[in-house]
Every structure is written in structure tokens, then in C-alpha cells.
Amino acid sequence: MSSHANIATPPAAPGAAGGTQSLERAIALLRAVADAGTGGARLADLMAGVGLSKATAHRLLMALAREGLVEQDGRSKRYHLGPDLVALGDLAALRHRPAPPAASPAASPSPALPQPQEAAAGAPPALMVRPSAFLRPEYRGESIALAALLCDRHVRAADGARAALLHESVAGQTTELSFARLAHDSARFATVLAGMGVGQGDRVAVLLPKGPELLITALAIWRLGGVYMPLFTTYTASSVAYRLADSDARAIVTNGFLRRKVPRDNSRPVVTVEGDEAFGPDAVPFWSSLHEAAPLADVARYREGDAFALIYTSESEPTPLGVSLPVKALSGIEQYMRIGLDLRDDDIYWNMADPGWAYGAYYGLVGPLLLGRTTIFCDGPYDVRQGYRMLTKFGVTNLTAAPSQIRAWHGADPGVSHQFALRILSVVGEPLPPDLIAWANRTVKVPLLDQYGQRETGIFIVNRYDPDGIGRYDSEGPDGGEAAQPPSASLGRPMPGFRVVILDPDGREAPVGGAGEIAIDVDHSPLFWFESYANNPERTALRFRHGRRYYLTGDRAFLDGDGNIHYRGRASDAIQMQQGE
Fold first, then answer.
1. Which residues of 3-24 are buried (b: 16+ CB within 10 A; e: fewer)?
2. What are the pLDDT digits (tens) for 101-120?
């Protein structure tokens, strides 16, 4: 390893963005850790070598540790290079390492490398995934303990005291579920589900309102290696029946009120949360059975391509489509939480989307659990006054909402000044009109940032990410300037890990300014994970009608010279990831 004698951070150029300074300092810290060798580096040595305060050095080291670029030894407290640098080094070696010398003709022939099997006639070819630094190693492989990633490791890291859930009732009563309690209760409920025959790969339908039982059930399913299948609570009985039959669900978890939506001829075992509603003698009581069960000791393992959730499209679809979420999609979920939403360690995060819908399930349930953050659930139908109360009561700093909720705020604006702690507000669902954006900016005093994505992809176009550090949508610059608004009617730019193009009707990439259909270049998008709809190859083929190279969204847009994508029309429910749109 080459030595870096002068590792002090050079003075930033006048007017340099604060983000650029932080990047330079983080790189200097990384080099200082590398120079310390296998013995590791003390925090005091890093502070002196790079010329940083303790607070700044610690903050940057924590950011590097989150990305797996450094790690701290628990005993010595020294910092070492992290495991993700192995993958980065391998990728760099593909370009920079000299090619091995050609083998001598007289040398023994090497055994032939195994070749992929040819696809069966008429079957689409398998997606080819290239090595990428975006595909985090903990979400790859053949033995992934999902429940440990989403819960158990956070118990060990913070003694279990951190809240996994803050649940606000309609009456304003707050209850807390810690990661330690979540681990304990989900292990017991996993035993209950296992007794019903739920095992690896089985789908469990969850028809529950927002509350602790939903989190406990999801974690219990993942402890067994099963597939969590949320059912939105406003579904009709026929919608519930269709999804139960199409998914071949093994069991159902619901409550007494929603149990009436389960078909009368249902033969699957049903667990019912105790409450005011009476339920039949065949139902298994949730809490009573949980407390009587012994905790399941083992945690099932998934492969990276295994589904751990199944999300169905809305009732507006003539035939609802099942979208399987594989474990490898966790890389994209984490990327969006950190880059698209700019979720920070000190944020109070509230995703207002219902977890029965894709955006709420991906980024309101799975995402916070993945990062060890607190999930906030607010009970009952959406109410503007309750929303204002939640923002002030919990000091929410990072909020994401559906367009319908922003409209409700606008329509019921009480006309009084509210003191919010918000620093970022993100919206997914549809481009919003300028007057609504202006009202939101005046009311909450932060920019309203639009995002774009689908159930099949997660969010892949964001207005938060700015690779050049220009026109940042916050006031972190050295002069503390006012926040800039994203380009008018722009969905934003592709999130790192995706290459987004505009295709003409013949499947050719359109030039800058040319209108066409938004598409993802699968070959150059390592965070893309969708492969097929459950039980519907015909609809799958429409998504790849120009071949497996491009995934087609069904929405029209054009690309401007700065890389921003401007939405021009809905040809599908592509951006309907939330309720009520």
C-alpha cells in the first residue's frame, strides 16, 4: 500500500460547497486509517493527522462506518478499513490490475468454466447482474438472516432500548415498542405461526391496521423465512379473496373488525388480534397465543433472490398484479433512505404512507427497520389536525407524504403559524402544481421535493440527490443561503445505481429534449431487482417489450440537458405507490 505522507485536508476553494469539504475530509480520514496499517488508528491520532475536531472526525467516521468503509474494533476502539473496501478493490482491479500473462501453448489446459444454462424455449432470459459497489455484501449470497438484519442486530448494538415503533392512537395516546421487545415478541409469535405450518417461502396475509401487531407479525414471518403479504384495510371482501387465492396464502393475521372481509369458505388458519369485536371459536387469539408460546431460537436464512414480501397492485387494476420483493432489493431501499430521503442519524422520520401500499411497506416499514430507526405509525383515517399534532409532538424533521395528504393540508389550512422542526419534505405520487408547492413552502418552510418510482422498482428518480453539489435543496452551504427549489415540473435525476433513459416507440434511446417513455437500462442499473409478476407472464412481457435490456414504466417524459427528467403524462399507474392516488 502506498504511503500518504501529507494527509491533512487542503484548504477549500472560496465558495466551495459544504458537501465538498466533508467529502475531502472523509477521504483524508480513510487514507489516515489505511496508513495506520493492521494495528488500527486511534481517534486522537486521526484528529491530529487530519486536523479535525473530535465531533467532526466522529461524525465522518460514523458515516464511513455505515457504508462499510471503516469499522471500529469493539475492544481496542481503534479504526480499521471496512469490509466493503474489498468489493471496491475488486472492482477497481478489473480496470487497473495488469492482465495475467497468456498461458503457454504447452501448458495444461485449464478446466472449462461452467456456462449458464440456456433458457427454455419461449422463456425470457435471466437477468444478468454485474458486480457493483451498490450491491451491499450483507444483502447478497445464499444465507441471509433477514430477521437479524431488520431487528436483532439493533438489539445488540443499542442494548435493545431504542424504539422500533412509536404508535399514536386517534385519541393521542402514544405507545412505544422497543427493538428488544420486538425481537422477543416476534420470536414467540413465530412459534405460533410455525405451529400452523408456516415455513420457508410461505406467504402470510396480514390484514391489520397500523400498530405494534403489524410489526411483530412481519418480523415473525421473516424469522420463519416466509413472505409478508400486506392487505390494505380498505380493500373490499372480493379484493381480499382474490389476493388470498392468487397468492396461495398459508395463513391470515387480522383483527375482529377486519375478519369480516375474510371469505366465509376460508380454510386457512386465522390469527385474530383480541379487541372489542367478537370472533369465532376457530380463530387463534394473537396476544394470548403469543404469551403462551416459547420463543423460536432459530432464524431462517434467505437467498438474495428469495422474496420476503409480496405487494399487490391497486383495486383499480382489472387484474391485480403481485410484485415480489427480493432480499437483494434491500440495497436499493437503503440507498433511497440515505440519498433520496437524506435520512440522518439525528432525524425524526415519519413516513405517512400506509404500510399496506408499496411506498409505506418499502420505506415506512422495511427501510426504518433496516437502518435501526424508529417507525412512526398514526392510527385511524388521515386527519389534518392530527397530522399537525404529530409534527409538533414528535419534532419530525424528515417527512414523506402522499400528494393527497398535501392537498388535504392545503384545503384545511387553519391559517395559523406552526413551529415545525422539518428540514426536508418529500412527496411520491404525482407532479404537484406550482401553487401547491408554493403553499407548502410557505407553510412548512422547506422545499417540497418530488420523487418517482413504482412497486416494481422502488424509487429510482429523486430530487434530493445532486452529484455536483450545485443547487442543493437545503441551506448547508458555507453562507447558509436560502434553499433552492428543484427545476419546475422535474421529477429529478436518476438515483445512483440506476441508469434511466427515454425510449422512442421503436425502443431507441431518445436524445436530450426528445419525448418518449421512461425506461430503466437494466444492464447498467445494479439496483434494479424486478423480474416478473406473480402468475402473469403476459403482463411481465409488456414491461420488457423491447427485450430484457429495458424495463418500461408506461409513463412519458423528456430528459433535459442537465440530466433532469420531466414528466409528460401517465400511461399507467406507474407512480401510484401510495394510497388514494
1. eeeebeeeeeeeeebbeebbeb
2. 555 444 444 333 333 334 34
